[in-house]
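Let's study today's protein:

:::
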Amino acid sequence: MSIINFGSSISLNQFANAIATSGSDVTIIGCGEPGIGKSATLKLLEKRFPDYEVAYIDCTLLDLGDFALPYTVDAGEIRITEFAPNARFKLHSGKPVIIMLDELGKAIKSVKNVLLTLINEHRIGDKKLPEGSIVFATTNLSSDGVGDTLEAHMVNRATVVDIRKPHAGFNADGTIDDDSWGKWALSNDIDPTVVAWVRQVPHALGSYTDPSQRDNAYIYMPGKLQKAFVTPRSFERASHIAKQRAELGEELTISLLSGTIGESAARDMQAFFTVADKLPTWDAIINDPKGAKLPDDVVARCLTVFSAITRIKESSVVDKFLDYLGRMEKEWQALFARSIMKSDKQSIAIRSDKFKKWATDNQWMFS
């Protein structure tokens, strides 16, 4: 008999799956820490429902006049007032619509009251949403201390779940958890230096809700004055900066990173940049895989593996990189194989004869 853990949090993928499955009948409100990727749920749903219209609604910007405007029509001997819904809700297309109510807990009280019919009945004024339409909402945890409140009468009209912060997902045996930041990063062009740093410093994605993280200098802490801190969202911005560090220069790069992920994380990541910039170039590795210089230490080898995954575009390059990687210990070969199979480069890898042979010879690593 399985044990049900009442009140447990869910992952971002589980949140998206719940909405895709039940969102046309139930409005699900996801509560989570700042910057964990709640808003990105709309993109996931847009891919799953290509025939739907998509409406992103920032509730912090709404006022009563943003829902519908009155107009009069003839009704026999008198004229009556009806209301035309705002175009932002995409009802005019006639297609089913996915409506995301972002930052719901920060909306002013009058706006929340108007949203009750949309949340409970999928209706704006007297206009019902097209059949099959989906409504969901996101907001911060009340413990985040950023002003989010969900009143009891709203909560009772919806299904409220807590969304947990994505964990790094890198395991000691080279595997990467399916529902993790690491898997997402490998398929979303995150700078390999950032990925390698997170693999070495996984607690950078810790949560303040975990008592063991109370002294974590990287993460968001409610009530603490912080210019910047580490979140999945800030890591994505840090990736853009890291990719431009050659043009920006060291001083400006660290300044920008400090304002993006916090000074502690920026200074610690600086050491990874120093290592990365001393590695052999990608062209040197691919043009001379048997002779190109091998990285000297753990950090450098980790960077080499993740950098390769971001650069590989065709199976012939996989063959050449495996010749280079074959000169390293088996653990780095395993990290590459397991990581690329979790990324969007999987289809490229499995077209490589050398990769298939390596996987067959080392199939125990995939069990």
